[in-house]
Amino acid sequence: MAEEQIKNNLALLIETIEGKYSADDVELVRLAFDFADQAHRGQIRISGEPYITHPLATAQKLAELGLDPTMIIASLLHDVPEDTSLTLKDIEKNFGEEIAKLVQGITKLGTLKYRGMDRYAENLRKMFIAMSEDIRVIFIKFADRLHNLKTLQCLPPGKQQRIALETLEIYAPIADRLSMGIIKGELEDLAFPFIYPEDYKWLTEILPQEYRTKEKLLEKIQNVVTEKFKENNITPENISIQGRTKHLYSLYKKLLRPQINRDLSKIYDLIALRLIVPTIADCYSVLGIIHNLYRPVPGTINDYIAQPKPNGYRSLHTTVFTADGEIVEFQIRTQEMHAEAEFGVAAHWNYKESGGQINSRQLKWLDELVQWQKQIKDNDQFIQTVKFDVFQNRIFVLTPKGDVIDLPEGATPIDFAYHVHSNLGNKCVGAKVNDQLVNLAQQLKSGDIIEIIIDKNRKSPNPDWLELAKTSVTRSKIRTALNKIKTAERTKLEGKK
Ligand code: MN
User: Under CATH, what is the fold of the domain 2-195?
Assistant: First the structure.
């Protein structure tokens, strides 16, 4: 029975990717499945299902998002090093270095355990670093988490709480910041019943009736506007009624706002009409037509095309009074904006361009991280909702090969050199930042590419560097090196006597 199910799931996965990826990549996906299937043989999930159902579901999710085959292959293998007798080395031998690195990234994140606020900041920071090293790891982690949430009811209550809370406080905000609307919504809605079971029950009980009433109203409106668009020679690619039932948790958060006070009838965008039109010009034309038909509710017109939200979200929103005095929200966007709203950065993610070397896309991504950090610092409200303050005193710099090094604010090339390796520090004679020679006292900034210049004959650090080092780790490494030299000289002196 289970065997049958697994066969069907694998067939579905292959069907999802066939034609989209090269035959070689599809074959690699098959091989990765066989490899993982063998490795996990005999293992059973707490849900009672064979273990392989989990990596398979994870891979399926990534395939449905249309992501790069490397992520699908790595996701099939993602629990192999931790949970089976096969190792990362075995994966590297069979699937190459790139896949092995991705799997390693996921395994590293897997050891994080969220335990209240103390560990919260640390976990968030690790996610952030993993992301800056290779964002594909985060995509796989999201898919992994989604499937784990789907089988969460099988775990003991303590674990359920921990995983659900971590999802709401760490995973969902990150998905939101990457503007992956679909993932954010799914993560939240799966975690919601575990954290607020009573409110979840309350909401799912009161929602259907209110929803049906509004849906009828919107069907009527949809017919009216469709007619008008025809008269004006505009053919929307898609008009759909969008229910907030898909995003229960975000609806719940809205209900908790003081001015709404749990009154569902005050949520005007419980369902909205979403119009997808061919061009940006059409977006504004459609907005004009709607305002010609219905009077807008003052203060509800939002032009997120001219001024996108911080996460990049673009659309026109307006809320209007209908002829019956009802209130209805419209969301107007192009297909491209729609894809960005649903898939976020993943919508543009094509990793094929990178040969493992640092490239313009990675730099752009790093730049976005830096922007994000800045925004987090500038935005009080954001800090209140998500306590990202842990990033406030960290910078992320790069080695010439593109490895990301995480240092405290105010760090100098000396800290960088000792962070990479004590020997690099001890032999350091200078540094280049973004190809420019700099003073060793220079403070580094996020996004800087640092190259340390060494003299291989140099024996010991300069004692003055103790002043330039920002971290105590660096200072202790410098002291260790200085002490070694002193001891060596003393022995030499004694030898001469
Ligand atoms: Mn997993």
Answer: Hypothetical protein af1432 (1.10.3210)
